[in-house]
Amino acid sequence: MREETMTTPELSFGTSAGTSTTKLRTSSLKKVWKRIGPPSIAFILFIGAWELFCRLSGLKPYLLPKPSDIVLAASENASNLWVSVYTTITEAVLGFLLSIVLGVGFAILLASSKLIERSIYPYAIIMQTIPIVAIAPIIVIWFGAGMNAIIIIAFLIGFFPMLSNTLIGLNSTDHNMKNLFYLYNASPLQTMIRLRIPAALPYIVAGLKISCTLAVIGAIVGEYIAGIGGGNGGLGYAITVASSRLQTAYLFACGLSASLLGIAFFLLVNAFSKWMLSSWHESEMKSSEG
Amino acid sequence: MTTMTGAKEWVRMERLSKVYPNGTVAVKEVDLTIHEGEFLCFVGPSGCGKSTIFKMITGLSNPSSGTLQVMGASASVARKRSDTAFVFQDHTLLPWNSVIDNVTLPLALRGVPRKERQREAERVLEMVGLKDHMRSMPRELSGGMKMRASIARALVARPKLLLMDEPFGALDEITRQTLQIELLELWRQDPEMTVLFVTHNVFEAVFLSTRIAVMTPRPGKVSDLIDVPVPFPRDESFRTTPEFGQIVRSVSQALKH
């Protein structure tokens, strides 16, 4: 039965008492090593091979910089790089937050009336298929080059996954539960707040995971198109500058920073969603037999 | 308890029929009057229209013809008065709410103040034996406990009419028998409360009811009304009496029509 396996696994370990604790600790260390050991070794081997290859082949550094060159470029330009990363984070986070608020908000609006949904949703889908790069120049014309336009591009790219995921979630409430609320004379607002929104949370979380990485992409693309120079350009801007100057090592450093930023952002959202759903939803429970 | 003459009419059906748009006759001309304090089981095979009758009593579905009165009004008006409560085969507990928040849901939806909700919830959780689990989440409960929580939620608003649609259908036989006895105790504690119980299990129907409406399919109709004139309290020993066997036989006979 599921109920029995749900009780935390630590508990059953705990009963085997003091003597086996040290054994347990070493075995859990072993487990951690088994998990992170092979990929770290592979990483070190890969970097080593790369470094060796560049040194031996004498390849021009503007074609393929050595890993050590990249680290050097990053540390020499640390303050510039940090400003770029910081700018991009700000834009991505603001765009992401906007896409959450407006995406979920619009989804609730659409879900509360079949008429509104039927009349607006098709256009939402059509708008989703418009490549963001194609309309970015229009956004720049409307909002001016710089932060505002970039935030709006980051927002637009994350908005539709949020909207459609939330809408699907709001519309897939269990039939019996809906009957229950109906029979107990719940108002549409009560049903929305107490039933449909909580039931949609797993879908909303799936939307968050998609949108957060898209927001970083959106911010960088936005900076390509609408980035302003000076001391406050984001990563996208730094990348265009570095590539035009053939500073390939710094280009690599910027690209790596952008990837790390995306990964960090995703992990953060992932941790948040785990925390939010852990108490009840099967997708995020500790024992994952769901 | 079993003689209902003079008691108030809780549900009255006269030539009640339901025909679906595709022409299927789900329920045909059912005449049945249910009185205050009864425990009436609808028993029959699947497709005999017992769930359809239920849907009409709850107001989830409208009759095609005939009259249906629930506590002197139409089904939907009766539902608005909140004297009716429901238990389904599925426990339908909200997985994101604790047991106590699930149980207080009908009161919360009506805007009953928090303190009173809390008090009523503790009362019914005590009755179903879940008071120690009121802070638990539904997934931490066994199947039987989930059903108890679901019953507690139905009882929290002190309903006059309790509608149960195969509530123990998904439980194992042992849990099912325990819950049957508990349910009878809950029903006996409130002499006003009327229980309508849908099941396809003849033994369950005989054990629980004061009266059994035997339903036969195609078209769904009440073919027999069988009294179960056995006094309460009933316990496990009732299941092995000759009287029990005899009523089971006559219900089974009626089902074969």
From TrEMBL, chain B:
**Keyword entries, A-Z:** ATP-binding, Nucleotide-binding, Transport
Q: Which CDD domains does the entry mention?
A: ABC_NrtD_SsuB_transporters
Which GO molecular function entries does the Swiss-Prot or TrEMBL record give? ATP binding
Report the domain of life of the source organism. Bacteria
Q: Where is the ABC transporter domain?
A: 11-242
Stored PROSITE patterns: ABC_TRANSPORTER_1, ABC_TRANSPORTER_2
Annotated PANTHER family: ALIPHATIC SULFONATES IMPORT ATP-BINDING PROTEIN SSUB, TAURINE IMPORT ATP-BINDING PROTEIN-RELATED
Write down what this protein is called: Nitrate/sulfonate/bicarbonate ABC transporter ATP-binding protein
Give the originating organism. Paenibacillus glycanilyticus
